Amino acid sequence: MNNLFSQRRQRHFMELLKYWRLVFNDHFVIALFFLFGALAYGYSQWLPQLNDHLWWSRWLLVLWFVLITQVGRLATLLKRPDPIFLLPQVRSISRYLKQATIYSMILGVLMVLTLSVIALPFALTTERLTTFDISLILITALITKVTWLWTARKAISIRWGAQRSRTIAEYWINPLIVWLVTWFVGPIWGLLVSAILLVAMTTYYRNVAIDWRLAVRAEQDRMFSIYRFFNLFTDVPSVQGSVKRRKWATGLIKLLENDNHAWAYLYAHGFVRNTEVSGLVTRLTIVGMLVVFFIPVNWLNTVIALLFIYLVATQLMPFYEQYQNNVFTHIYPIDHEVRVKDFQRLLNRVIIIEMLLIVIASIGRDLNWQRLGLNLVLGIAESYLLTKFYFQRRIKKMTK
Q1: Cα–chain-centroid distance for residue 286?
Q2: pLDDT tens-digit readout, 3-16
Q3: 330 torsion bin: left (phi>0), alpha (psi -120 to 50), beta (else)
Q4: Burial level of 352, CB count in 10 A (0-12/13-18/19+)?
Q5: CA gap 101, 391 in Å, rounded
Q6: Residues 6 or more apart from 187 whose CB is under 8 A from it?
Q7: What are the pLDDT digits (tens) for 338-384?
Q8: Alpha carbon distance 103, 138 (integer Å)
Q9: What is the CA radius of gyration of the chain?
């Protein structure tokens, strides 16, 4: 069983690495560089404006630490045939699950500690914390995450697996109690409560014999959530879209298509119906709106707005070849130039809509109309350059 988990962990890493290479391409890495840089700069500019002991600061810290406790799930790496082929290894499977639990705890603790460090500058600004208090808070975050993962471990057991509502409540209530005590009573008391909860959970939930059905389903759900993230950037065979009627999209299709143009009709319907492409454009637009809304620095706000417009355009351009492998589209008596113009029209309208939404959001909390006007002018210019020149160059590369 020791070799089995090591082999599966290695194959799991190789599979994730394959998708990570596709996700973190040059464009996305540049976008992340600007995005995290902008967020870090805005964070550093926001902290000096805060005062000591704001009434909402402790509640925000409680919310943050409860949320980050949910990051990092139990990774058992079990597969669907395991209940049949590993059933004779009932006694040995406990060693396998012990390795899986330790592996999950290491990853989960690292993620929680990293996210905890992000909140510490805010906590140091609004609360009078000492170095000893910070150490207690980090240890409390570690213990709370271990307790959370033990809750996930008992959730796939025969005895406790059926109590799903109780498990979900423990996922949220236990960290909530710990962090309420930590921030409203004291860090040392929060550490004490977290230690008591860990001892109580491990003592009470001792009989954790595996329920194969629940364990396999939990691992499938975990991997599906990972694949859905990868599916935002590339095609993942394990994730299949669903087909359903969207009446609200009728007006959007009419806005994107062009009357009596077959390719315009096809591209407009394909864009709206293809949840991978339209969903990606929608999510990038929403993220861009949120980011530019909270960035107060004018030049940085403009750079991020233009960057998101460029990202949406580059993610949408490969949609031009969506129907390239469909043999029936090649028998249309329509010139290639007409197809290019129809897609260019779709690209232009999508970029204009996305650009207007991001520009409107860039007015920010301070209602900076001058910044909005500048972003609007530059956004229109960038949209024109992307659809008229950059797209033509991409088309030449695609059709070689």
Answers
A1: 13
A2: 888 888 899 888 88
A3: alpha
A4: middle
A5: 49
A6: 129, 133, 136, 137, 140
A7: 777 777 788 888 888 889 999 998 888 778 888 889 999 998 998 88
A8: 20
A9: 26
Give the position of tokens 């540049």. 30
Please tell me whether residue 80 adopts helix, strand or coil conformation.
coil
Q: Are 77 and 7 in contact (CB under 8 A)?
A: no
Torsion of CA 224, 225, 230, 233, to 10 degrees: 110
Distance CA 307, CA 301 (A): 10
Query: From CA 28, how far away is CA 16, in angstroms rounded?
Result: 17
DSSP-assigned letters across all residues of 287-316: HHHHHHHH---HHHHHHHHHHHHHHHHHHH
Q: What is the pTM of this model?
A: 0.69
- What's the one-letter identity of residue 230? F
- Residue 210: what are its φ and ψ, rounded to 5°? -70, 135
Please provide the size of the chain in residues.
400
- Cα separation, 221 vs 212, in Å, equals 14
Work out the end-to-end distance of the chain between its first and last CA atoms, rounded to an integer number of angstroms.
Answer: 52
Output DSSP code: residue 73.
Answer: -
210 beta partners: 157
- Residues 6+ away with beta carbon under 8 Å from 394: 317, 320
Q: Residue 157 pairs with which residues in a beta bridge? A: 210
DSSP-derived letter for residue 155 is T
Q: Which pair of structure tokens corresponds to residue 108?
A: 């989960």
